[in-house]
Amino acid sequence: MKTLNFAKPRMGCRFAQLAAFVGASTLGSAAFGGMVITPTFTANFNANFGANAAAAQAAWNAAASVFTANFSDNINVNITVDAVAGTGVFGQSQTSLFSTPYANLRNLVVADAKTANDATAIGAGGSVSAADPTGGAGTWWVSRAQAKAIGLIASDLNNDGTTTFGAGNPFTFAGPIAGGTYDFQGVAAHEISEVLGRLGLKGGTIGGNPNSFSLVDLFSYTGAGARSLAGGAGANFSINNGTTLLKLYNNYTANGLDSRDWAPGSNDSFNQFSNSGVSNPVTGVDLQEMDVIGYDLTPIPEPGAATLLVGGIALAGIIRRRARP
């Protein structure tokens, strides 16, 4: 098993509310199911956001709560939350990666399967094929947090990644998104999801390793049986070997940036591009994607039980990515 550090600069946006801290601080862990996400806000985060630091911390925690409310993995995810001055950065993520042979990766995914989505993905006609789709030529990677979720490594309290934001961008942190501003909670959820493993490596050379792919690449198709590991034009998210194309990925060959963000369309936390003045929620298809890349999606409770989670579930309308003027 190899490890390396992987940084992905990018953009995002969206909302929330919570508490203020000074200097490098750890805010209360976001947890509704078994997953615990613990942020450590740096002194630079607080200094660069200044008077908005408390609101920005609250928004980040609200974004994290979308994942803890919807996934039940019994793991601790620890994320450093940083900020820089100005607008040169919108949102970006950084994480360590672990490699493992495809056969072991598939075995771990099969062993971790708990939902109907998982059953489709690993079953006959599913996207997690029995044979390595690279014919053994590729290197397969997962993020550190994702490695915990599928059992490649044990859960621990070590740092799993960093999300960084440009404090000079016009953000709305809570409530309706004001015109000319971006949804900070949406941006935060976008970056958190990448630390969790929503990585598009584009079949490039990562850490000196050519033909590198991540688990999410297994779900990229242009049509039935037509896998598109590296992404590009016409690549879509599919859990059943391309028979059903659930959402179009960004065409990074034309637009650059990430191969596993969504193409422009309806407002969505995982989109590559975002307009100002709009809310970018974490949608059902976003949760479905996270489900099949190693996380255990919690069934939606009956209405009577739902009241206990209403604060967290309601947050499942948040996030997004790179800013488009």
- As a whole number of angstroms, the C-alpha radius of gyration is 18 Å
Calculate the terminal CA-CA distance, rounded to whole Å. Answer: 42 Å
Outline, from the CA principal axes?
A: globular
* Mean residue pLDDT: 86
Helical proportion, percent range: 25-40%
| Number of DSSP E strands | 16
Helix- and strand-based class? alpha/beta
Write down the domain tally: 1
Number of helices: 10
Largest sheet: 8 strands, mixed
Order of helices and strands: EEEHHEEHHEHEEEHEEEEEHEHHHE
**Share of β-strand residues:** 15-25%
Tell me what you see in this structure.
The strands form four sheets. Strands 1, 2, 3, 4, 5, 6, 7 and 10 form an eight-stranded mixed sheet that branches. A four-stranded antiparallel sheet has the order 12-11-13-14, with no helix packed on it. A two-stranded parallel ribbon has the order 8-9. 26% of the residues lie in helices and 20% in strands. The longest helix has 18 residues, at 53-70. With 325 residues, the protein is α/β, with parallel strands linked by helices. The chain has one domain (3-323).
Short overview:
The protein is α/β, with parallel strands linked by helices. Helices cover 26% and strands 20% of the residues.
Draw up the topology in text.
Blueprint: E1 3-10, E2 25-26, E3 36-41, H1 43-49, H2 53-70, E4 76-84, E5 91-99, H3 102-112, H4 116-122, E6 139-143, H5 144-150, E7 161-166, E8 171-172, E9 182-183, H6 184-195, E10 212-214, E11 220-223, E12 226-227, E13 236-237, E14 247-248, H7 252-255, E15 273-274, H8 284-292, H9 303-306, H10 310-313, E16 322-323
Parallel strand pairs: 3-4, 4-7, 6-10, 8-9, 15-16
Antiparallel strand pairs: 1-5, 2-3, 5-6, 5-7, 11-12, 11-13, 13-14
